Amino acid sequence: MIKGGKLIIFSAPSGSGKTTIVRYLLEQPELNLAFSVSATSRPRRMKEKNGEHYYFMSVSEFKNHIKNDDFLEWEEVYRDNFYGTLKSEVERLWAEGKNVIFDIDVVGGLRIKKKFPEETLAVFVKPPSVDELKIRLKKRSTESEDKINMRVAKASVEMATAPQFDSIIKNYDLNTALKEAHQLVANFVGVETKEK
Questions:
Q1: 193 labeled part of a ligand binding site
Q2: Is 17 annotated as a binding residue?
Q3: Which end of the chain is less packed: N or C, by CB atoms within 10 Å?
Q4: Structure pTM?
Q5: Topology of the domain covering 7-186
Q6: Is there a binding annotation on residue 16?
């Protein structure tokens, strides 16, 4: 794989606020970030667009990409629900001269960090508590009670991986978390920051 800019990973249990943080960072032009769109075999939700939210593919298509070694990392998160990062996606963004930012599950995040230890900043976003996580997931109203309980059970396991990341942001207060994330990324990509 050709090497280019920096890789910035944000991982967290579902509902921790990592997507909000990543969206905020993408809006900061001085950081020169581009979002790495993941591939998935899970069904598309309402309002999701192929190539913008995910690259949606069938389970057999996904397995073909695995066989062809097209992924930087991939995982079967739930049965037949695969997620992964296509090498071609990262290469495309690096070719545009961008630093690549990921909103990715903890296992995938740590795999990328292992492959590119020097070029990667891995940040874990910690929610106030697993109970708070459950409240946030329920507020979303996008999933069944069973799915929410599955995510909450998985969150406890994911929280245990936090020490393996370069930095941990505690998302108790969103504005504080956003400032902290901006400072971390700016330092990593070598950008001077003015206090916002």
A1: no
A2: yes
A3: C
A4: 0.86
A5: Rossmann fold (3.40.50)
A6: yes
